[in-house]
Amino acid sequence: MVFKPQTFHEKAPTVVTEFPTEAALEAQVAAALAEAGGLDAADISVTTKAGTVTLIGRVLLDTQIERAEEVARSVPNVTDVVNKLVSEQTH
């Protein structure tokens, strides 16, 4: 195996990411939903694109729809939330 010589001097360059990757942000939001009180997040799917979080799925109560959005918005680097959750609660 042949290794190329280093093209930098002294200290290696560092890569700074201003925003977490989409997968990392999805994981952070999903974890926050799972840990949130007053919410069963078992049937909630989380996707992200450019800081916008989309919540899709079912919750038991109408109040949990608002709670899920509130929790998602509280996660750092979330810029917007599209809430497509539906409730199984009958009116």
TrEMBL record:
Highest taxon listed in the record's lineage: Bacteria
- Name of this protein: Osmotically-inducible protein OsmY
Show where the BON domain sits. Answer: 21-89
| SMART domains membership | BON
List the Pfam families hit by this protein, alphabetically: BON
